[in-house]
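Weekly modeling sync, notes
Attendees: AB, CL, MP (scribe)

Item 1: holo prediction request
CL wants a bound-state model with flavin-adenine dinucleotide before deciding which constructs to order. AB pointed out that an apo prediction alone won't tell us much about the pocket. Agreed to run with the ligand included and paste results into these notes for async review.

Input as submitted:
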Amino acid sequence: MAITTRGFGGRRAPAEKPLPPGQFLTEDFPVLSAGPTPNVDEAHWQFSVHTESGEVRRWDWAALMAMPVEDVTTDIHCVTRWSRFDTQWRGVSVDAFFEDVESEAEFVMVHSYGGYTTNLPLEDLLDGKAWITFEHGGEPLAPLHGGPVRLIVPHLYFWKSAKWVRGFVMQEHEEPGFWEQNGYHLYGDPWLEQRYA
Amino acid sequence: MTWLVAEVTEIVEVTASARAITLRVPGFRGALAGQHVDLRLTADDGYQAVRSYSLADTALDDVVELAVDRVDDGEVSPYLVDVLEVGDQMEVRGPLGGFFVWRPENVEPVQLIAGGSGIVPLAAMVRARRRAASTAPFRLTYSVRSVADAFFAEELSASAGVDTTWVYTREPPPGHARPAGRLAPADLASTFGPSQDPAVFVCGPTGFVEAAAALLLDAGHDAARIRTERFGGA
Ligand SMILES: Cc1cc2nc3c(=O)[nH]c(=O)nc-3n(C[C@H](O)[C@H](O)[C@H](O)COP(=O)(O)OP(=O)(O)OC[C@H]3O[C@@H](n4cnc5c(N)ncnc54)[C@H](O)[C@@H]3O)c2cc1C
């Protein structure tokens, strides 16, 4: 049944390109986090990839800075319904971290400082679809928005773009991460409006 | 989860800029204290806007109670606060959010910290506690600009078993000992400390939540015990 809300006109932003269903455009950068913002300084930051065979590859800040840097301009879509067009990030493609990693596992559990986790199929992180970033809008990434280092996976709802990222654990089976255990969709495609489980 | 048609059954002024809005939502099947819903408004030409609002009470299964504060340059909240009337319709989806919740079977101490409209889901917890006759010790620290900006002030102050401390950022009432100012380390003196290992719920505008959570961490609270809900804004 189609209902209307008497007296509501709305204030539509002139969208120059389509938005995923149920999203609205904002110029702000709202914050969705389940707990306090962790304080992680660059000197102590580490990133690691753990494979199913128990192997671990590690990078520190200096190693990250030595990797090939890319500038990425992309739209982002948060499950709490805001979207932003043309956000700018600087970071390293996730592909670069997997160059020397031997794994047959098809799923990844992303871990963050502060205990946050989120699950993704590996293929959603590879082939230029995801980055480990450290700058946003030309500035070092603020702690509130995931600094010093945040994963971005722009084609999925932004809760998959884990703030304060510190590692990937390869998994043979898909298991739900933090929000995925708390009511959000296992995969989270904004164009299919996969918000809730 | 589908969109349900909701009809406004009651509107009560809460402050000069906020209203409590009661919706009857056939098909809504109850919620836990702390959860929120998505509201969808549809204009005559089909344009739609959706925003999240916390449940202020979870007493009745097919009734949704909200309290909305006007964000002056906003798209949806000025409509809800200034234009909406009893009998108007909109759509509701929920309940949403499985983490920022208090369950009546929890007996541990609970520390609530609210800024402005961030009291809404915490008021739902206070009400759920009363309804369940829970004896879990609750403390609430509620930061508002002035007495006139407080939501549910009388009810909160009168809640047995809930120890409420007021923080006035701009204009304390006459005789209030604490000077005007934002939440500061000294305000934690009236809260459960880390040694009591409380479950902590912090809610309000994003800047308030950031500041309060940082104070709690500095005071030694375990980050894993602090749950936050950020309403937006700076
Ligand atoms: C889980 C959740 C629960 C919420 N519960 C409640 C609730 O119980 N009561 C309530 O009143 N609001 C609540 N909110 C906020 C609400 O969803 C809207 O963001 C708010 O009503 C503003 O919407 P708008 O359309 O009027 O403003 P918009 O048009 O979306 O925004 C206009 C401007 O206001 C800023 N802004 C947005 N939200 C806020 C804010 N909260 N404070 C200050 N500035 C802001 C924006 O950054 C923007 O610059 C909740 C938000 C979330 C995520």
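Recorded for review: Chain B has a mean pLDDT of 96.
Action items: CL to compare against the apo run; MP to circulate these notes.
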